Amino acid sequence: MTRKLQSVSAELIGQPLERKDGVEKVTGRLRYAADLILPNMLHAVVVTSPYPHARVVQADTSQISNLPGVKVVITADDVPDRRRGQLYMDRPIVTRKARFVGDIVAAIAAESEALARKAAQLIQIKYEQLPAVFDLDEAFSTNPPTIIHEDIDSYRRAETGHPLVEKGGPFGVDRDRSRPNNFALLKVEIGSVEEGFRDSDLIVENVFTTGMCYQAPLEPHAAMADVNPTTGRVTVYSACQSPYRAKMELCELFDLPPSHVTFINPPVGGGFGNKSYLTIEDLAVALSMKAKRPVKLVLPRHDDITSTVCRNGSKVTIKDGVSKNGKLVVRDITVLFNAGAYNDATMKYILSTVYAAASTYKIPNFRYDSYAVYTNTQVNGAFRGFGMSEVEWASERQIDIIAEKLGIDPVEIRKRNIIRDNLSTVNEEMGDVRIEECLNRVVEASDYWRSKQKKASGKGKVRRGLGIAIANKGVNMHKTSMTLKLHSDGDLELRTGSQEIGSGSISGLAQIVANEFKVPFEKVDVVTGDTRLTPYDEGCTGSRAIPINGSCAVAVCNELKKEIFSLASKIIGVPSGKLDYANDRIFLLDDPEKSINVSELFVKTQFGVGTLAKKQGELIATVTYDLRDSVGNRPIFHQSFTVGAQAAQVEVDLETGRVDVIRTVTAVDIGKPINRQSVQNQIEGGVVQGVGTALYEELRAGEDGRLLNPSFMDYKILTAGEQPPLMEGIIVESKDNFGPYGAKSIGEFPIIVTAPAIASAIFDAIGVQLTHMPMTKERVLKEITSRGT
Amino acid sequence: MSTTSKLVLKMKVNGELAEIVCQPGSSLLDVLRDYLQLTGSKKGCGSGDCGACTVIVDQKAVCSCIYLAAQAAGKEVLTVEGLASDNELHPLQKAFIKNGAAQCGFCIPGILMSSKALIDETPDASEQEIREALGGNLCRCTGYVKIVQSVREAAAEITKRKPKAVR
Q1: A786 CA to chain B: closest CA distance, Å?
Q2: pLDDT digits (tens, 9 = 90+) for B26-35
Q3: What is the CATH number of domain B91-159?
Q4: Which architecture, in CATH terms, is B7-82?
Q5: DSSP conformation class of A380
Q6: Verdict on whether the full-model pTM lies above 0.90
Q7: Three-state DSSP class for residue A59
Q8: In the structure, what pLDDT confidence band is assigned to residue A170 with cuts at 50, 70 and 90?
Q9: Per-residue pLDDT for A537 more than 60?
């Protein structure tokens, strides 16, 4: 088949090119993890605890051991006594003590899913129930009703090289030993809080809280493990956002050498943090080891909600001191994260949310105390925003309340406090951040000032309001490796351990490579998802896919060009420094007429079939990129800060408490868009998820700790009929130093800024400052009735 | 259980006659995915809440996860794999690609089939009708804007091609 391709002369960066994966996705050909099958494979289910806190006394498998087709059962006795978690390892593969309703106490593999499910109903697990604690404050107390992890001090903490965690690092993480359910604590202090309060004209203290919600990717967790019983080698196929991290977790849990574990990672059907780390892959491996056959485990939606990870609750107390004109003098902020039963990502949360605690404001005196707290509830894991949603929510609400008390407009008070020297309150260089420009753009686009003049807009039972918020989201995890190969037809093959989870990042990388080589987008192919072929990557998480991986893509292009030019210079007979590349040709910079086609770099093989590169058989380069190399030894955690603002317009029904978001305008400084269409689509999707988590979505539990709504019928995410009718995205460009062409990220920012903007608009509409998210109808109505608005 | 007698069903799937052996309680989705290995239709919930499994049975969009395979006996089933004809993509598919309406893509097979059932029946569907028709299809990535826009564009394209649509 011959291809007709336009030659490239224009800059590809920013162009709204069609994504690489479009055809596969609209034809149903794309194979997700759950679509894969292996010969002779078994199907698995998990057995979960019905109690929030209970010791497993006995697991009686006699009822099911004779069931035809049921092959293996694993309990805590069958798995290595090792634990996992991010930075701090506390979760066993299968537990001996259930710490929440949904904790995994056994897993079963059978010839069919139906048989495995039948066996799960018949297995007899005897429990000894223990007192449970669900409430964050009760669990956090010095005398809690129960201790969830008695052996807390025996758990391993990772050596990360992380500046906030390292011994001797500037901050240091510990735990408060007087509080038995606290397992991690970060304290940061800048300036003097005491002096700050002494110098303040007004002191304002408030408590802000968030409920429990679920990432809700449409694809549930799916993992298939194939352990070779003779060699012990393990192959895992899984829907995971970070295949390399999950692979390394597997190696640690099962004491396997990295060379013996292959992680195959098909494109992921949505993650939003839910699939950030190892989740169920360890169960599939343990079952396959015991069964000596491949085992596939796909979680039913109920188990996906109850037994994996969610965004659990938070409680943020902010005490601010301000001057009469609204300048923040001091902030004393205490953040409690409800980790649920296990750490998973919560220790990381308390590290990263230090950047939301001061938000995009400059506060000369600042104290941040953040605690990770165990409760007998669902496990808190990564969720788009990674703790920033909860803490920016609190911070932005607090600023609105201060504005109200001082009679200063919310836009004005923000302008008086935003960072103007690109140095955050906690002394991180933020790069070029255009906070004020974003704020001005949403103020203008939403006609903010005119709307403010028309006070008490809306008549009768429906009130309209317009609100604003600002936020930031940095990127952490700074390493990745990539390989780039030139084929003799001029096509480029990029190999990356990062995977497409929906955001369009893989197409973005292809766009960068095409731009660097000045070839049509169609000539770049991206190979992903197999740790034997695709080099190390830290995962498609934390907004890192473009700023970090995009930088690596540029670097690997430069490295491959060096190889190409070195070979071409010998053929053309000029120094390689004088060569350039475009549209499959290598040419002299001074004399573009003098050129060769890439095919001339290749020769026929010995037997006359196919070609190989004249030099070393292949024209290929591999590069490892580490952001730390470019910023030096300065301790960094977050970098490449996306900042922005949102104006949200709402209608509040005074009789029902119902809030409708009728318009949002979101302006984001993302440095430089790689693909404008993908950026706009991320803004729309993020805002809609933000509206859902702000107004509707809440996982609720009964008094027995059991979730009341673990299904898509009862846990409401927005449908096509409920999306805000108008959602505008404004892309603000800046000149940042870190990402490729100055590009920052877009994945997480929109959800973070949306809830506080809506809350601000609700205040504008009905004069009530809400402090709990989600702002459900019931809660809004309760506020309306209690204040007689 | 394995003692239950099996059903042998005949139905047309994507234009081809298929003979299927399954359990009496098998869902159409399980038969499509496991027996026929047409894995384009997705299982997002198994209880008819998310719409990722939507297929068309005799012109009507159904959630195949809660639709018994036996109910489809003798009927015509269309899945996402049968949406394109020959080598040409359906206007819906083209519009979805053009607008980037598929992000993670997991909900897309179901959304395409709900959309096809709608515009086959109502080629001039209003935006409101599109949103209602897609009310049973959850998408977590896109915020629906580009999906609704794509359905409108595809409907317009189809209407343009066939000025007098035969109902």
Answers
A1: 34
A2: 999 999 999 9
A3: 1.10.150.120
A4: Roll (3.10)
A5: B
A6: yes
A7: strand
A8: very low
A9: yes
